[in-house]
Design goal:
heterodimer, A: mainly alpha, rod-shaped, B: mainly alpha, 17 helices
């Protein structure tokens, strides 16, 4: 194999590898994005639930005691 | 007499180094080679057992997060496999069974494999931690990778015939990690699944080692048949099988497994013990082959070991598949 052919093959292999690495990083970023969205959605639901619970607790403590 | 002046060091000949690099096949690892680094067959078993742990844990989990958990466990297992191949390249090149692996055959350099495995390990643990912020699943995954790479590959493999007993625990963690991802906890029911795989690994691995011992001996790995002899190995296979079979029935007592699992574990365990007994009574391993096709072309005396090896794969798959299917059916019916 001549040096030029070798160089071309090497650069082609390196380029392929770089595309795979870039693709892998992109997939990773996309997965992190979706996981973050799901966790944010969950946290929002939990916050709403906690807010409702504290409202209910406040209402029940403010209600006058009956004899 | 005057000293001759020292010759100045030749400048770094980048052109020559690059010429050698261009010609080197080692720089042209294909995507398929990098995929082979992950040990896909081991990865498939890991994924299956982890999925079982995740689903039979019983807690509902967002489907995408479940997918992330399984992906992270698969990548973590693959990373451990890649690091193992990177560190064992020279040893793998000595064994017929492993000489065609990417690092052993020179298609991927050791450093590339180390980097690939290291980055994959980090990303899988990091992603697991993001998806399951309580941290237990991520910690267990990180521990499993370190356990396999450091404890098994670097420390135990060349030092003790108990290498596969202690190191095999790495393969038993995935169902616990799956369970931890689903629930944020690792209760003792999850550790029963761990125990089943932990006790299954020695008879499974030693059955293979009985008829490939020559390969291990050449590479200097003290597998049980090499270090203690075939007779001792056959006895230990039987003993481990006798302990494993009842442990595999424990899910019935805990309610994790139902009637069908009870049947599969009792009958399957009895058959396992039968195969182990046949190995014990045979002369398997007395004249190990270690040939090119020793997995398929064994001597008659080693057939019992080959049969036990093949059955052990079926047995474990059947156990976990039954647990999974039972749980899914229960979920559908309720």
């Amino acid at each position: 194999m001549t040096n030029d052919n070798g160089k071309k093959a090497y650069l082609a292999a390196q380029s392929r590898r770089n595309y795979f690495i870039a693709g892998g990083l992109l997939v990773f970023v996309v997965l992190v994005f979706f996981v973050t969205m799901i966790q944010m959605g969950r946290n929002t639901k939990i916050e709403k639930l906690n807010a409702l619970k504290s409202q209910a607790a406040a209402v029940s403590s403010a209600a006058p005691a009956t004899h | 007499m005057s000293k001759k002046p020292a010759k100045p060091e030749a400048p770094l000949d980048i052109a020559t180094d690059l010429k050698q690099a261009y010609a080197s096949q080692a720089l042209r690892g294909s995507p398929g080679d990098y995929f082979q680094l992950l040990k896909p067959r081991v990865m498939s078993l890991v994924v299956f057992t982890a999925l079982t742990g995740l689903i039979i844990a019983g807690k509902p989990i967002h489907p995408f997060l479940a997918f992330i958990a399984i992906l992270c466990i698969a990548l973590g297992a693959g990373a451990a496999g890649a690091l193992n191949m990177a560190l064992e390249g020279e040893t793998d090149a000595l064994m017929r069974r492993t000489k065609l692996r990417p690092v052993a055959a020179g298609r991927v350099t050791r450093n590339d494999a180390l980097t690939f495995g290291g980055v994959l390990a980090f990303l899988s643990v990091f992603m697991m931690w993001i998806a399951f912020p309580d941290g237990l699943a991520a910690a267990l995954l990180a521990m499993t990778i370190v356990y396999y790479v450091v404890l098994y590959t670097l420390v135990l493999k060349r030092r003790t015939p108990q290498n596969i007993v202690i190191g095999g625990a790495a393969g038993a963690f995935p169902p616990v990690i799956g369970w931890a991802a689903a629930t944020g906890a690792a209760p003792w029911e999850a550790w029963i699944l761990f125990a089943i795989i932990f006790l299954w690994t020695p008879p499974h691995s030693w059955a293979l080692a009985l008829y490939t011992a020559e390969d291990y001996a050449k590479a200097g790995i003290p597998m049980m048949p090499v270090a203690k002899g075939a007779k001792s190995t056959r006895l230990q296979i039987l003993l481990y099988s006798l302990v494993m079979a009842p442990v595999a029935c424990l899910p019935i007592a805990t309610g994790l497994g139902g009637l069908v699992y009870g049947f599969v574990s009792v009958v399957g365990g009895a058959v396992f013990i039968y195969f182990a007994l046949r190995v014990y009574l045979s002369r398997a391993g007395d004249h190990p082959e270690g040939g090119e096709n020793s997995l398929y072309d064994v001597k008659k005396e080693a057939l019992s070991a080959r049969n036990l090896f093949a059955y052990s794969i079926f047995y474990l798959t059947a156990l976990f598949a039954t647990l999974l299917v039972e749980h899914l059916i229960k979920g559908v019916m309720s």
